[in-house]
Amino acid sequence: MELDNIEEFNAIPQIKEKLHEYGIAKSFPEGSVILQENAYIGAIPIVTQGSIRVMRTDDDGRELLLYYIKAGESCIMSFLGGIHNDTSKVKAIAEEDTQILFIPIEKVSLLIREYPQWLDYIFRLYHKRFEELLEVVNAVAFKKMDERLYDFIKKKSSLSHSPILHVTHEQLANELGTARVVVSRLLKQMEDEGLVKLGRNKISLIGA
Known about the structure:
Elements: H1 7-10, H2 13-22, E1 24-28, E2 33-35, E3 43-49, E4 51-57, E5 63-70, H3 76-83, E6 91-94, E7 98-104, H4 105-114, H5 116-142, H6 145-160, E8 164-165, H7 169-176, H8 180-192, E9 196-199, E10 202-205
Antiparallel strand pairs: 1-7, 2-6, 3-7, 4-5, 4-6, 8-10, 9-10
């Protein structure tokens, strides 16, 4: 597994070398649970290929998508939980076949002390995740479900670099924290409006 395609570290060869030295490379097929809620965090993940979706589950078992982690990025929630010896507050799932470099917590602390650029990387990730979480709060509080669903489909399409999504209505409902029947009804409305074309476990964005 290489980090050569990750722009974050190309300008800092020493950090890239240390990540290779300290890191443990693992591969996860699509749909794999990488991190469970309430699990202790012993390492920080850096996605080198693929993507991860990060979810939050309420007391009734309903899930809500918080953000995606793409290649070259890490999980700030894992970073904070690991540094403070706390348990995970989120669940992480492989959105597609994904490769990850896990950096042990004690090595993360070493990198922070030795390389200010690494701390800058963490702060920039924190800023990005904070903005994404604000978008989630704004969408849940102020947007109608049809807007949230259409925006979500476009986001997943952009992430996969394809106008065709192979996803069930149930999966979309789970990630948006709503009911399948609501998603099915809204998708049918979108199809009638010419925004999408529906197939078996497939949604095609029209004009994307």
